[in-house]
Amino acid sequence: MPVGVPIPWPSEIPPDGWLKCNGEVFDTVRYPKLALAYPSGRLPDLRGEFIRGWDDDRGVDSNRQVLSWQADRTKKIQLAEGNGGNYLALYQGPLDKLLYPIGRDAIGRATENSIANNTGGDETHPRNIAFNYIVRAA
Questions:
Q1: Could you please report the per-residue DSSP string of 73-100?
Q2: Rg (Cα) of the chain, in Å, rounded?
Q3: Residues in domain Phage tail collar (predicted)?
Q4: Which of 32, 123, 130, 136 could join 72 in a cystine, given CB atoms 3.0 to 4.6 angstroms apart?
């Protein structure tokens, strides 16, 4: 495995010869191969973060550089009533204006200012398991 590749490690303590990806500075003289991957001498801080593939001009996640950080975001979901309030209309992306029949008692009256129920979290994220990202130091 090349030096500098982050791998998920199932323990809080990395094995000998490995460093945590916790944003700390490392000695570029002591670890010259690691410095080739991270010339700034600082490892990425992957604590609590998801790794996302670089867009590389694909157009899905434009205007980002390799190793750049991105804040959380939730795609806009707009609720509106349709057909006398008996339908819930979701307006989002290419599948615009889908109507889902629901009973009026299910939500009362939907308006463009309606808010969908949430699970009480501070961010939107998929289910996941926490690993400790580490890199080989050389």
A1: -----EEEEETTTTEEEEE-TTSTTEEE
A2: 22
A3: 4-51
A4: 123
Reported as type and span, the H/E element at residue 135 is strand 132-136
CA 16, chain centre distance (Å): 29
The values of phi and psi at residue 89, to 5°, are -105, 125
Of the two residues 74 and 15, the one the predictor is more confident about is: 15
Tell me phi and psi for residue 36, to 5 degrees: -65, -35
Give the β-pairing of 18-20 and 132-136. antiparallel
Cα separation, 13 vs 46, whole angstroms: 15
One-letter amino acid at 52 equals R
Q: Which residues contact 27 (CB under 8 A, 6 or more apart)?
A: 41
